Structure formats: structure tokens, C-alpha cells
């Protein structure tokens, strides 16, 4: 396990907003940020209650060597609600970006709920995914929570933190409340402790990046889709190389879940657990996270 103590990251929110674009898929507008250059393409998929800004500290690290697309998933951020529920709209969005960029295959990075979506894309369209990074997931215990809530909570009471996320992620945060979470220590601890072990250590700009995804109208429809969701086909169908990155103190996607997924999935090449880190490794420990991702994505694929 590794940890780091770093200076506050730069505030690049204005840079991300300046590079925002739209693409129309299924007659719905999908927002994304785009930067970088090169032959390779990487698509970033946020989690529930998130948006493209959750990757604000990841995009600059990856952009020098590739074209980076950070999505606002349908119903989140600035993207419109999808025409149909489920995974297929996300698959079609990734396919549209691949076609737009002209590459044969691209890389995927998913966080939390986005790890499930990334796996679904890789399983349903294996020919277009080269490599995949799953951060704070797959959230297999959360999936179990939908099927067997009492048994799952008895096994891991810390998963009650997901219930906090589920109850609050779809509620828009007024600017005054966001300011209080950033500026008032006890309010920040109350709001952020389900996700990170050390809220006081986060720069103010990082907290604002996290809060910017709250209130997406797609949150509650996404939760409804969790009822009856079966991850087994995606688990069996993923064949591309995978890197798992998690936090030692993640209460939503615990280390045991990542280890179990790695044991059941031959495509997993490495599991990296970052010490003193919770559910947001790309925001809590961006230097460590970015270095691991860059090394993995730059690796040469073995001939098949």
C-alpha cells in the first residue's frame, strides 16, 4: 500500500468548462469534456451522483499522451435524460465517441457505478475496448445490497454508507450549502465522511469538484435499475486487461470486493490499494492514482 502527502492541486475547473462539448446519441444531448492529442483515446465514466468534473485531476495527467473524453452520463451533469433505461445508451455513447475519433479501440476508466458500466461496455463490445481501469469498484457488494439488503448489511455494516449516497446524490445542493460544506469544518466532515476518511485534508477546489455532480435527475432512475440487476454476464464477458485501484478505507467498495473480483476475473492484471484513502482515489490521491493509470495504459499489449 502507498500513501502520499502533496500540495493542493491546481484549480482547473475553468479549463474543463472551456473544453465542454455535446454529442447527440439516441436523440439526446450528451455533454462531455475533451482535451489532449495522440493516437489513443480514453473515455472516463463517473459514478452515481457524479459528473465529468470528478475527473478534474485525472484529465490533465492523461491528456499529454492521448485524447481524453470525460462524460456526463445521461441524466447527470449537463446531459439530458436517456430515452430508455439501462446500459445500452452508455454503450452507444462510447461507440459514438470511438467512431467520432476514428480509432479501432479505446481505453475505459470507470469509477464506482461507472466501473459496472465500463465492464458492461467491455463485455458487450469487446472489439472496441483495449484496456480498462476500474476505480473503487466493481461495486459488487452494492449490487448484493439490492438483492439481499439485510444479509449484505449484516456481513458488512459499513455499506450503510451507500444508503447515504443513494438518499442524497439526487438532491440538488444550493450554492450556500455547497459553500458551507467547503468552508465549515463540521459540515464538511458530515457531508464527506461516508466517502473519504480525511475530509479536512482535501483542498477546497477538490471538494467543489466532488459536489458539482450532486442533484442529477438520473440518480433515482439509476437506483431503480439496480433492483434485479445481474452483473454476472458482464463479469464473465470482460476479456481486456484490467487494473483495479481502490482505497484502503473505502466503505462502499471495500478492498475485499476488489480482491474477490480479481480472483474471479483472469483479465485483472493488478490490484492497487492506496492507504489512507476512501471511495474517491482520483480526487484524494491524484498523484498516485494518475501515475498508476498512466503506467497501465502505456503498457504494450501482448499479441493475441
Give a brief outline of the structure.
The protein is of the alpha/beta class and 304 residues long. 42% of the residues lie in helices and 17% in strands.
Describe the structure in your own words.
The structure is a single chain. This protein has 304 residues and is an alpha/beta fold. It has helices spanning 13-18, 59-62, 88-101, 113-124, 140-147, 149-155, 160-168, 175-183, 185-192, 204-211, 218-226, 232-237, 255-264, 281-284, 286-298, and strands at residues 20-25, 28-36, 41-45, 67-71, 106-111, 129-135, 242-247, 268-274. Strands 1-2-4-3-5-6-7-8 form an eight-stranded mixed beta sheet, sandwiched between helices. Strand 1 (20-25) and strand 2 form a beta hairpin. The two termini are 32 Å apart.
Task: Characterize the largest beta sheet: strand count, sense, and whether it forms a barrel.
Answer: 8 strands, mixed
Give helix % range. Answer: 40-55%
Q: In whole angstroms, how far apart are the ends?
A: 32 Å
Mean pLDDT: 86
Shape: globular
The helix count comes to: 15
Q: SS-based structural class?
A: alpha/beta
Report low-confidence residues grouped into runs of 5 or more: 1-18
Number of DSSP strands? 8
Radius of gyration: 18 Å
- Proportion of strand residues: 15-25%
Strand order, sheet with most strands: 1-2-4-3-5-6-7-8
The string of secondary-structure elements, in order, is HEEEHEHEHEHHHHHHHHEHEHH
